[in-house]
Amino acid sequence: MAYNLLKGKRGIIFGALDEKSMAWQIALKCHEEGATFTLSNAPIALRMGKINELAAACNNSVVIGADATSLEDLENVFNQSIEILGGKIDFVLHSIGMSPNVRKKIPYYDTSYENFAKTLDISALSFHKVMQTAMKTDALNEWASVVGLSYIAAQRTFPGYNDMADAKALLESIARSFGFQYGFKKKVRVNTISQSPTITTAGSGVEGFNSFFHYAEKLSPLGNATAEECANYCITLFSDLTRKVTMQNLFHDGGFSFTGVSSELVEEIMKNVSE
After folding, report:
1. Residue 252's closest CA among 268, 232, 274, 267?
2. Which are the contacts of 208, defined by CB distance < 8 A and separation ≥ 6?
3. Which one, of 268, 215, 211, 237, lies nearest residue 92 by Cα?
4. Closest alpha carbon to 171 in 114, 94, 232
5. Residue 153: inside a domain, yes or no?
6. How does pLDDT run across 196-212, given as a tens digit for each residue?
7. What CATH number should be reported for the domain holding residue 151?
8. What's the domain count of the chain?
9. Is position 169 within any domain?
10. How far is CA 208 from CA 21, 162, 220, in A?
11. Across the strands, what pairs with 54?
């Protein structure tokens, strides 16, 4: 059911690749709730993904290729988006993350620092660059909302998540620091959503992901949150209903983040021990 929560709002969604990606589901929900927006991703992702299918499903949203680590590319995204959408921007989604160390299965203790730097630049510093560019070009309306997608590995250690954990910790710190500055300057809200492990193209590439997913499902009182459920939550942050929510890392994980242990998980562990 749609509530027109974003009717008349304009946005930019970074990071949609295919129907498994979080940004894809969020874009569909934004469209359903009445928003207009542009879509952006790296040129290689545009070639590999299905973003044009998403654009067609969202009233022919315009796709703007951009390297989110390039200030020049980002300035082009904001300028083009304002022109295409007919006004300043009301919401921005940052759903960007990539680790060469994870892709190449290089363990954390033996990391390539060149790869590590790329992980931080792509997965976290790009969040800062997006907001720095938006601020310098005065691209956002007052009370606009910026949301970045995170994961609880920013606070806890998960084997296999590698240097992406450091990137998520930095992402959340940037949300607090930039949220403080942007709030005073233009009443812009900046938050991150710490989502359950979710079956996406990127997430599935993390070593041991299936184990993460199963463990979280057994531990969470409400079970893992799906990508579509995350999209619903994201909509509330883009809407006017959360005008005074900023600088927060908001857990959307079925209660996983505050649960120590569950009977269901203990029973499964004991069963495996007995066998």
Report:
1. 232
2. 158, 159, 160
3. 237
4. 94
5. yes
6. 998 776 655 666 778 77
7. 3.40.50.720
8. 1
9. yes
10. 19, 11, 18
11. none
**Where do runs of H (alpha helix) occur along the chain?**
22-32, 43-48, 51-57, 71-85, 100-103, 113-120, 126-136, 164-186, 209-219, 227-238, 263-274
Does residue 3 sit within a domain? no
Please state, in angstroms and rounded to a whole number, the distance separating the CA atoms of residues 173 and 163.
16
Provide the edge-to-edge strand list for the sheet that holds 36-41.
Answer: 63-65, 36-41, 10-14, 89-94, 140-150, 189-195, 249-252
Which structure tokens are listed for 224?
Answer: 């893992």
Name the strand (E) or helix (H) holding 38: strand 36-41
Query: Which residues span the domain enclosing 254?
Result: 10-274
Q: Tell me the per-residue pLDDT of 92-139, one tens digit each, with 9 for 90 and over.
A: 999 999 999 999 999 999 999 999 999 999 999 999 999 999 999 999
CA distance 171 to 165: 10
DSSP code for 18: S
pTM: 0.94
CA 267 to chain centroid, in Å, comes to 34
Please, which residues have CB within 8 angstroms of residue 137's CB and are 6 or more apart in sequence?
75, 78, 79
| DSSP reduced 3-state for 178 | helix
Q: Is residue 84 part of a domain?
A: yes
Q: Which residues are catalytic?
A: 151, 161
Please report the pLDDT score of residue 153 as a whole number: 95
Mean pLDDT taken over the chain: 94
Would you state the torsion angle of the CA atoms of residues 250, 256, 257, 259, taken in this order, to the nearest 10 degrees? 140
